[in-house]
Each structure stands twice: as structure tokens, then as C-alpha cells.
Amino acid sequence: MRLLRAQPDAVVWYLGASDARPLDPHWPMLEAVCTGQGMALSLWRCQSGTSLVGQALRRVHVDTGFDHRAASENLPSLVARLLQQALHDHEQGLLPAQGAAPVSLMPGPQTAARPAWFRCAMGRWRGWLAQQRARWLSEQWRIGLVDAPVSAWLDPGFRPKVRWLTGSRWGRYLADPAGLPGDPNQLFAETFDEATGQGHIARITLDAQGNMASCHRLPVGRGQHVSFPQTLSVDGQVYGVHEARAERRCTLYALDPEGHWTPQRTLLNDVAVIDPTLFRHEGRFWLAYTDGDLGEQDNLCLHHAERLDGPWLPHANNPVRTDVRGARMAGAFFEHEGALYRPGQDCLGAYGRGVVLHKVLRCTPECYTEEVVRHVTPDPQGPCPDGLHTLSAWGERTLIDGKKLGFNPVVLCRKLRQRLGLMPHPKAISQAASADASISPPRLQRLSVVIPHLRMGGGELSMLRLAIGLHKLGVEVELIVNTLRTAQVAVPEGLRLTVLGHEGTVSAQRALTQALRTSRPQLVFSAFPHTNVATVAAVRQAKVGARCVVSEHAPLRQQIAREGGWRYRVLPPVVRWAYPKADAVVAVSEGVRADLQVMLGERCAVHVIANPVIDDAQPLSPEVPAQHPWLKDPALAVVMSVSRLSVEKDIPTLMRAFATVHAQRPQTRLMLLGEGPDRSRLEALRQSLGLDDVVQLLGQVEAPRQWMQHAQAFALASLYEGFGNVLIEALSCGLPVVATDCPVGPREVLAGGRHGQLVPVGDTDAMARALLKALDQGSVPEATCHHAAGYTASRASQAYLRLFESLL
Questions:
Q1: Which of these, 520, 560, 566, lies nearest to 539 by C-alpha position?
Q2: Phi, psi torsion values for 203, nearest 5 degrees
Q3: From CA 334, how far away is CA 393, in angstroms rounded?
Q4: Cβ(203)–Cβ(188) below 8 Å
Q5: Which DSSP state fits 730?
Q6: 729-755: buried (b, 16+ CB within 10 Å) or exposed (e) per residue?
């Protein structure tokens, strides 16, 4: 079918099967699904009015099993993913795909010899056979060593001689091998316990003859299933990552010469990362993985960073590949004759059926393309004829693994115990680790949240939203503040308030110690540097057995440089003393984490959990009338900004940029929501620019999102931002956003400019041009609204609860 009707000689897009035939409108992809080939779709670009010759723009291929009805239900989402990625490529000027040769498009669907009902019945029969095969036969993996570089596998005529390092025995097997760079005798692998159904990371040592001398399990992970260890050497230091999808995070480890893994930082958080692999290409670090939320075997996603410590940004077109035959990683990237290659798993019909080698044609933050070079299949006459899912370079040698199916009484007993409810199913364990914490009562019963004041700042509001969210999850929350003298918000219902009655950090710390001895919480959670230091000291002195978690909401080094007073100049050594003594340190963004990690060094790892911005209980209501005459007048175009009226928000740059905009478009207005110490200076600047009638400083307002939904654009001109809550609020209202590319939040929140415009800090002309473009834009893509909708209070509260309970 054609997706766009066009005039003669116009370019049209054509959706069809991978063989360029159109889809049968009644039984789409019936033959392929019922024979176990999955659904393979292609989007073609052709010239209307001429011969039907086209070029493939995008392809997707997923394993659907043998049930055509279930496969048909997934077809719309598959087509939507295909179109979304192709449209992105089109906007970036990347179409047609590199290397796409012209193909003759078929005039009609392939004619089947047998009726549809017969093919559906045969599909169900094949599905039942596959089900019985999986029920009674079990996988047994072995790892092997080939004395040839991994590039040798690019030759179709290469016949490897495998030296299998492990045998086949019931109870335990080894898979996913990866060598320790620079050490020819140490490697890592997954050791899988067939009795429990859980995997662990093991360190393996080879003897002088190259045989396995020892295998020791490493204390990596949090008791959940872990697998697929991968390593990368950077300037002499070896780093590692592994799969831990149940934890919904990807952690970076530093490896010592003895092979011990020490956690450094969280690279990705709240993502079901499968088979993560680090690599370096053209001056950037990359993390390739499969997102378990999108599918366990058919997608390849990328994150990238200029430095290993981040910030890590998602690729602009994730998932960059959707293909059950090669998307999931099968080992480390490798280079050969100046080209980059990627091994991927062929999982069509069965997990780890073979390995597909891809040549990477282009790898940038906006575009990723690759082509298949070779399909590698297991030796049907060898000891592991049923699967191969690792080709891992290890110097001039290659590590592989192989699979054999067979009857295994250990696995059969485990499956029987799971059916009888005598032990949890592995999927149930994984789902429990990431499910809504409200399903069962939390282990955390008493929590104290410590902040200095009840102000309207982004950090204070985030802490209050978290306190409310954790209270809804069944946690008894005590809110502790220094004083109520500067309170601007009311204490949320359900929280118990304790006022220390002291402004100074030292005196407040002594009062906090006494308060903790009285309330005896299980965990204390604080925010902001001075309060964090006082909280760490108070928890240690109170000696009530409470855990301590501190959080940073802005780049600390930027704060110290701006404030300059002695209270901030003493922070670096004090923070380096206090933060490692906390049980966990949390940053609200990757940028804040990277900034803090520079100060802390390797003393402790910093978790990343995004702020709770969108209140699930208070959705936007379009019926709420506008609160200001400007917002009611359809002839006016209102630019809105929400921030504290203080130096770090650099509102003068925004006002000067707006003066340029207003000179070109007199119907524009600027509304500033917020209060702060710079009000008088900003009012004087407004008067000097002649903007008294078109710029208003409205002070604090309740529910600013209800105001935003009636504006036409949003702007933020900050010198630095830890996260940028108001950017998420504006995006959730569908507003085009303009923000300065300041340290550190806006670039991360806007995904490097994908969801809004980024301009240089302090650049009035660039800000004015961006505002004009935003006013012309009118609305934002639906994908941007979905992006903003992910920053909910419930999601953040559950992420914090998982972290807190892991410490108890």
C-alpha cells in the first residue's frame, strides 16, 4: 500500500514486505508468520508515475511466534515505529539509506497455494511443537577459544578450530565470555545455576596450556540475575558493564589487575538494559544495548557521551535497529582495516541461534546505519550444534560460546517446582524488582526527609513531591525543616512536620541529631550541600541505625563558583569527607552526577534519578480558563518563563532578547512567573528597555502549568541548571521551548536539542532568533509530549523506594 498519495513524478513512500511485495489487506504476512519467519516489513521510496522501482528506506523484522492473530495485533505498533524512524531520517536529510540499491516493487501480494485457514492451523501446530520442545529440552552452553582474530570470521570460507574450555554437565554452565584486556589468561563469563535459574559473573583463569585452571564467582550485582560481562580499556584503566535488567540500570565498574569489579557510577537508570556493550568511536563513548521494554531480542539502542563519566545522551533515533536477526549484541565491537564491525545475535525462532556480523557505515548522535556482512552459524556436526551467540575479540584470539539442547533433570525439577509454586519463576522475580511498589507493603516504614526551608524553588518542590509520593506508597514520612520563617508553601497533607528552629548549619545539625533520636527513622533523606553535610553528621551522631541518602539538585562546582563566600569555599573538602560516609548519593541528572563525581573522585558511586515533575493526581485541564487578560486575547502571542528572580537565572538576557522580538512582532508579550531578590533590578531594566507595557513580573502563582498551557512559547535563560523542572512542565503543555545550553540540565532534558532549542549562554541575538522560531512553530511533536510525560512523581517515587529498600 502507498502511504502518501502524490501527483505524477512526486516522491512517494511504499510499505511492503521485505521482498518488496505489498501486504495482503486480509491476511498480512500470513505465510511468514505461520512458517516461523516472523514479520519483516520495509519502507520503500519510489517515483510516482514511473516504473515501480524503489529504494529501501527502513526495515524492521520481529519474531512473532506462529500465531497470526497475535502477530496482526502487533502490526500497527510495528508500522508506527517504522514510520517514526523514517520520518526522523527524512528530517535529518538521511534518506534514502546509504547503500540501498534500487529494487523492483512487486505489483501484488504473493499468491498462496493453500487456503488461509489451513496455513493458520499449520502455524498453531508448529507453535505447539515449539512449546513442547521448550518444555522438555533445556539449553546447555559451553565457552570455547579460537586461536584466530575475530576479523577472521569475516571470511565466508573460514572454518574455526574451537578449543572448548568447559564440558557439558548438569547443574551449571558457562556462557557470554569476555576477555580481560591486556591479560591473556583471565576472562569473564556468566555462570548459570540451573537449579535456581539465576546467573552470576565469574572470573576464569587459564593455565600455561590454555586450559581452564580456576573459576570463581564474583560479588557483582544485588542478588538478581546478572550476565553478559563486557570490558573496555581506556587510557590503561579497564572498565566493565554487565546485564542486570531486573535492577533497571546499567552500572559502570572499574576492574583491577586481579579482575575485581568496583562500581563507579550509574550510566543508565530506570531502563531494562539487556546485553550492554561499551565502545569508543570517533572520539565519543557509546553504549549499545537492547531495551527490554521494547522487546528482548529485536532492538538495538544507543547512548553516547563525550566522556566516560557522562552525561550520557540517547541516540536521536532509538531504537536504531529493529531486527530479530542481528539487533541484540553478541560481543564487543571490533575494527578491521579501518572499518567498525558489530556482532549481533540471530534470534529468529530460537534464542542465540547464530551470530550476524555487521559493518557499521555511519555512527553519529543523529544517524546509525550498518550492513550485514556475514551470518555465522554453529557447526551442525560439532558438540554444540544448536546455537552460537557470542563472538568476542580477545587480542589475536576469539572467545565464543555454543549451545546444545537436551533433556536435563535439574532444569525439569526447577520448572516443576515453579509450576507447583514452591519457588518463584525468574520472570516473576524480574517483574517484582521493577513493578509498582504499591502492590505489596514496602520494607521501608519510617522515613525522614530533611530540607532547610519550605520555599518555592525547584529543589524544594521536588523533595516535597517525593515525600508525598512515598507517603502514597505506604511510607510514614516525617518532614524536617530548619525554620518556617521563609515558608512559601504549606505542609502537604499526611506528612508529619518537625521544625528544628535553627538557621545556622551547625546549630541545626545538633537539633537534627536530637530529632532523629526521637523519631528513630529507618532512613534519612536530604537535599542541598550544607544540609547534606549536616545530615550525614547527625545520622552518625544519633546512632539509631538509620541509613542516610543525600541528593544534589544542581551542579555543585557552579554553585561554589557563583556564591564565592566562605560558606561555599569550605564545601569541597567537607563534601569529600561527608558524602562517601552516606549510604547512597543521588543526582537529579547525568550532568549533576558528572559534576559531583569530579569532586568526589572514586570515593563513591553516584546514582541518577530524575526529578518528579508531573503530578499524576493533577493532570492538565483544558477547561481551566486563562488567569490573565493576555492569555485570553487570541491576537497576542505570549512568551512565558518560570523561575526565581535571581542572578543565576539570567533574566536580563531574556528581556533584552524579547525586546528584539517585540520590535519585529508588536503583538508579542513576555510573562515572568516567580519571585526573588532581583525584582527591583529587573523592573528597572524593563523600564530602560521601554517594555513596561509588554513585560510583566507576576510573582509566585499556584499551578504554573495551568498558566503555561495558554501561552505560545516558553523560555529559560539560566546560567546553570541542575535539571530544569520547568522545561518538562512546558513540554508537557505542548509548548515550544527555548533554553540556554548551560551546565547541566537543559541539554539532558531536551535530549541534546531534539525536544527544544538550545542557545549559547548569555547570547541575546541567538535567544531572540530562537524565540521567533518557537513562535512560528506553534506546537511540539507528539513524541516530545510523551517524553515529558515520563517525568512523573509516581515513577520517581518508585525509583527512590527501590533504592532506599536496597539499602535496608
A1: 520
A2: -100, 125
A3: 7
A4: yes
A5: H
A6: bbbbbbbbbbbbbbbbbbbbbbbbebb
- Name the β-bridge partners of 262: 254
Report the C-alpha gap between 136 and 708 in whole angstroms: 59
**Phi and psi, residue 336, nearest 5°:** -150, 120
> Distance between CA 240 and CA 272 in Å, rounded?
18
Alpha-carbon distance 547 to 533, whole Å? 14
DSSP code, position 469: H
43 bridge partner residues:
15, 58
Q: Are 23 and 1 in contact (CB under 8 A)?
A: yes
Which three cell numbers mark 744?
Answer: 547541566
Cell of 198: 539465576
Q: Residue 598 gets which letter from DSSP?
A: H
Q: Does the pLDDT value for residue 429 go beyond 50? A: no
Q: How far apart are CA 393 and CA 466, in angstroms?
A: 45
d(CA 406, CA 134): 10
- Give start and end residues of each alpha helix (H) in 25-158: 30-34, 68-91, 116-136
pLDDT digits (tens, 9 = 90+) for 160-205: 999 998 776 666 889 999 999 988 999 999 988 877 778 889 889 8
What is 8-29 written as a DSSP string?
TT-EEEEEEETTSPPPPSSSTT
DSSP per-residue letters across 498-514: EE----SHHHHHHHHHH
Amino acid at 358: H
- Count CB atoms within 10 A of the CB of residue 664: 9
Q: Which residues contact 366 (CB under 8 A, 6 or more apart)?
A: 92, 94, 315, 316, 317
3-class DSSP state of 117: helix
Of 429, 463, 472, nearest to 196 by C-alpha is 429
Task: Identify residue 303 by its one-letter amino acid code.
Answer: H
Rounded CA-CA distance 564/556 in Å is: 12
Distance CA 324, CA 296 (A): 9
Contact 231, 239 (CB under 8 A): yes
CA dist 193 and 180 (Å) reads 23
What is the crossing angle of helices 725-732 and 782-789, to 10°? Answer: 130
Residue 487: is its pLDDT beyond 50?
A: yes
What are the tens digits of pLDDT across the range 365-419?
988 989 999 999 999 999 999 899 999 999 999 999 999 888 777 667 766 766 6
Residue 214 neighbours by CB distance under 10 Å: 11
pTM of the predicted model as reported, rounded to 2 decimal places: 0.55
DSSP annotation of 735 reads: -
Cell numbers 543508565: residue: 268
pLDDT at 467 over 90: yes
Report in angstroms the alpha-carbon separations of 506 from 502, 535, 538, 553: 9, 11, 10, 22
**Which one-letter amino acid corresponds to residue 175?**
A
What are the φ/ψ torsions at residue 304 (nearest 5 degrees)?
-145, 160
3-state helix, strand, coil in the chain (%, to 5): 30, 30, 40
Element (H, E) at 193: strand 186-193
